[in-house]
Amino acid sequence: MKIELLYVDGCSNVERARILLTEAVQEQGIPNAIEETIISSDEMAKRLNFPGTPTIRIDGIDVEKAARGKVVVSLKPRLYIRAGMITGCPTRGAILDAILEAKDRARPA
């Protein structure tokens, strides 16, 4: 399972996202292999379809279901909407859901 945390240097929400992601990974018993990537240019953001900082992807799929397939490339802070609340990072529940989805995809049919 590929677990990615992508962000722009200086992002005020990356530490919270990192904590939530680490907790979710540990809870699911996944070896802590989080790949962190600092997005340093518009070109890099375009190449990686980066929708804003911070972004978490599991096996290349955004943890925020509403953002899948709707990438607007940006180096700006990202807003996440969950249960009517707007935050600067995904919820722990969204991260856990994405991990469980990835586990389901990996199971043999």
What sort of overall outline do the alpha carbons produce when their principal axes are compared? globular
Rounded radius of gyration (Å)? 13 Å
Beta-strand segment tally:
6
CATH fold descriptor: Glutaredoxin
Q: Which CATH architecture would you pick? A: 3-Layer(aba) Sandwich
Instruction: Note the total helix count.
Output: 3
What amount of the residues lies in strands? Answer: 15-25%
Spatial order of the strands forming the largest sheet: 2-1-3-4
Structural class: alpha+beta
Mean of residue pLDDT? Answer: 91
Describe, in plain words, how this protein is organized in 3D.
The structure is a single chain. α1 (14-27) packs across α3 (92-106). β1, α1 and β2 (34-38) form a beta-alpha-beta unit. The mean pLDDT is 91. The protein contains three helices and six strands; from the N terminus they run βαβαββββα. The chain has a four-stranded mixed β-sheet with strand order 2-1-3-4, covered by helices on one side. With 109 residues, the chain is of the alpha+beta class. The protein has one domain (3-106): Glutaredoxin (3-Layer(aba) Sandwich).
